[in-house]
Amino acid sequence: MNELLMALCFFSFGYVLNMFYVSVLYHRALTHKSILLGPKMMAFLGLTGAWFTGLDPKTWACMHRLHHEHSDTDKDPHSPAHLGLMGVWVGQYKAYLVIQKALINKDQKITNIVKDIPFDVSFINRKNLSWLPYLVHGTLSVLIFLYLDSAWIGAAYFLGVMSHPVQGWMVNALAHSFGGRNFNSPDDSRNNHFVALVAFGEGFQNNHHHYPERAKFSVKWNEIDPGYVLCLIAQALGLLKINRFKT
């Protein structure tokens, strides 16, 4: 197998793993309950989520619920309507840190938003060790580089598994600025097919804001939701259950 193909395989593995956590477990399951997790899988998510994404799952879910409640208003934690397209990049990170701090400090106004989530903010986030997952995956990337004698393959793994800042910006900025609308929602949510393809269905923001509790983000024949395919595969493996009443 040549170097380029190997690099693509390692990138794809890391990228799909990241999207499974963020799009399926964090978003569809933890935030909206369109995917049902058993107690063991829920506990597994609480323990491993931050390690595989660099993002605390409870904080992510809280921020996303606030986004839906205040979509594209000045209270939205990451809207291009008041941050600008490029401003979303920094704005979403700052909002994440503010919400995480509020959860750690047990701010009742914020904790009530995610009181149904049966685990606390991740240990590494509570102890100001949020850099640790990046170090772990960076070390794995170096080991891959040394073992396979290819910096490209090592870098491809790291860029794949730690790709969430780019995904998040594309969804929050581009899919609230460019694209068509199937529904007349009160916000600026759009269906951006490019973002949806890259971010495993997350780009269908207009569909999702109209049906936030549906596991499947596509509604038309020409809308492709790779994240829902991951849901079906995971259900077949017994890892979760799609909430059919919300699809």
Radius of gyration: 18 Å
Give the neighbour order of strands across the main sheet.
1-2
Main β sheet profile: 2 strands, antiparallel
Overall form: globular
The N- to C-terminal Cα distance equals 41 Å
Helix content: 55-70%
Flag low-confidence runs: none
Question: What's the mean pLDDT score?
Answer: 96
Give the H and E element order.
HEHHHHHHHHHHHHE
Secondary structure topology:
Elements: H1 3-31, E1 35-36, H2 39-53, H3 57-69, H4 80-83, H5 87-104, H6 108-111, H7 123-126, H8 132-148, H9 151-161, H10 164-173, H11 193-198, H12 205-210, H13 226-236, E2 241-242
Antiparallel strand pairs: 1-2
Helix pairs in contact: 1-2, 1-3, 1-9, 1-13, 2-8, 3-5, 8-9
Describe the structure.
This protein has 247 residues and is mainly α. The chain has one domain (3-246). Strands 1-2 form a two-stranded antiparallel ribbon. The chain has helices at residues 3-31, 39-53, 57-69, 80-83, 87-104, 108-111, 123-126, 132-148, 151-161, 164-173, 193-198, 205-210, 226-236; strands at residues 35-36, 241-242.
List keywords for this structure.
single chain; 247 residues; mainly alpha
Concise overview:
The chain is mainly alpha-helical and 247 residues long.
